[in-house]
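Bit of a strange request maybe. I'm writing a small parser for structure token strings and I need a real example to test against, not something I typed by hand. Could someone generate the tokens for this chain?
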Amino acid sequence: MPRRRDSEKTGDRLERKYEEDALFKEKDSDMFQVIEAVFDRLTLQGMYRLLKKGVVGSLHGVVKAGKEARVYYGTAPDGSELAVKIYYTHTAEFRKGMIQYIEGDPRFGRIRRSPRSLIYTWTQKEFSNLQLCHRAGVRCPRPIDFTRNILVMTFIGEAGEPAPLLRELEPEDPQAFYDDVLGQMQLMWQGAGLVHGDLSEYNILNFRGVPIIFDVSQAMLTAHRLAPTLIERDIENINGYFRRLGVETRDREELREWITGGAEDLYTDT
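Reply from user aminoacidic:
Good idea to test on real output. This should exercise your parser:
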């Protein structure tokens, strides 16, 4: 009996492999044509899994390509727009700084330090952070699913055209936009229990005149020892950008207390 079960399992694996191979070789499969030249077979298998689950229906062109990942425009089987972020698994420079943003986070326990495992954990972390932000009401992409180095979320933009970065499109009313960004920072800290840690005009979208926060992979829990340093960095970045637009920014210490709710132990050693 055990041998039979083992044989059945082997048969199931072979069947899945044949299905995957057939899909990979299908010339009309836009989904795999757009990624197979850049990503490895394990990534293609991850995409196959999302396809079989009905998470992704079609994958189209790249809307953002960076040193860490590529973001593709996609659609779900029901036609809704998706952003599919695929992290590179071979970028050594990117992986060097990951550990400090993962260690000490109770959500992930023991961290495997192999390059691929780190990327997989990083993807899971961004998904988890997006969940916390979305539940708290922070304006951000809604996380839908993830597997391995692939993160699927709602697409921020219209008809396949991504919303512009704040860097690319200055707000019509900089003062109101600044106040709105500060409100999102406060909601992120007090509602989601997170600090972004890399907030700037490069990871805020200006969508229909309101700020949308994205790229939260490095965001840390507010209980983490790095949180005080990260909130200071965010405040400095945001105040610096809006000052250049002529906005009367708030005092750094006053702002820190307002965002964090006056956390008394924020600067105690842990």
